[in-house]
Amino acid sequence: MGIPSITPGLLTTRAEMDRLFGGGSQAGIIPSTTTPNILIYVDHDSGKQYGYEDGWLAEEDELGPIFEYTGQGTSGDQTFLGRKGSRNAAVLYHAVTKKSLHVFMAEGKVANPKSSAKQQRYIGEFALDPKQPYTVREAKDENRNRRRIIVFRLRPKGEFELLSKDAITRAEKTAAQQVLAAVATPKVPEPNLVSPKRKRTSESRRAAQPSLTAELRQSELREGYLMRLIEEGHEVAAYQIRIAGTTTLLTTDLYDATEHELYSVRGESSREEVRTAIGQLKDYVRHIDPANPKLVTLLPEKPQDDLLNLLHTEGIDLVYQNEGEYTRIPSR
User: Domain ScoMcrA-like SRA, which positions (predicted)?
Assistant: First the structure.
């Protein structure tokens, strides 16, 4: 069920949407209590207080434009778990629960001197990007502490309004920032958190969620190796890289500051994944400060000899799992 009687560009209020759909008028993510809809409210001024900005990316891909929206939670790590993360989970699994996502942008004050409420401009209906439904980044919380935030990647469905004033600000210069290693190793939520048990596996797989075997394996491999490095006394981080003139924000895998090594972690040892690892490392290493880290690929098992030769030709070390341990083959 869509939202009746409103079209992109319409000016409304939270109170009016509450009367129409229920769910309340507070918070950024409001699951309706009476219809299969989730209302998402964006406020540029509010987001900037916490070091993030929601809106359209300047860059489009073959699937069209992308709208980024930061999840709920102003203190501590944002999560999909428990009461604190329930609204983020509602967005993540909206396809499983058959709920539509509708986005509104704050647009000045209502024409009432006795009210401090803001007008809300309807942007349109959205769905999560099926390939990458969200990314995890570092930002400051309301107490200025470093924490992980969830940034949803939304794709418009049907009619939508794309205005330049709703776009995320382009970076003035390229800059790489060291961030928490936990940004590179987000916990992958389990589908059964909100997915009804009666749903068939085929239905769950159609939902936009990072539940494919390779992605789970990649996450587990990255987190396991991070724990190993920390146990050995290494200082480990990741990098967020802003690219000049764009709204692109790249996030690396692990960076071992103790050994000055930059890792690409892949969930399979196939040719496609090895090529992806090489491309990522060659892309990211240009921007890392301090410069010239050793490049390393972490794989779940040893690849075929030709792929090992490919990595070594590019000066990239290989680390792979071997019966619960990690084996390293240096490039030189």
Answer: 13-156
Per-residue pLDDT reduced to its tens digit, 274-285: 999 999 999 999
> How much is the pLDDT for 115?
66
DSSP state of 190: P
Tokens representing 327 are 């084996």
Q: Peptide bond preceding 290: is omega within 30 degrees of 0, i.e. cis?
A: yes
Coil, strand or helix at 115: coil
Q: Which of 144, 167, 190 is the last residue of a domain?
A: 167
The whole-angstrom separation of Cα 253 and Cα 264 is 5
Picking from 123, 140, 167, the residue at the C-terminal end of a domain is 167
Number of structural domains in the chain = 2
| CATH number of the domain residue 104 falls in | 2.30.280.10
Helices (H), 158-211: 201-206
The range of the structural domain enclosing residue 157 comes to: 1-167
Round to whole Å and give the CA distance between 205 and 61: 23
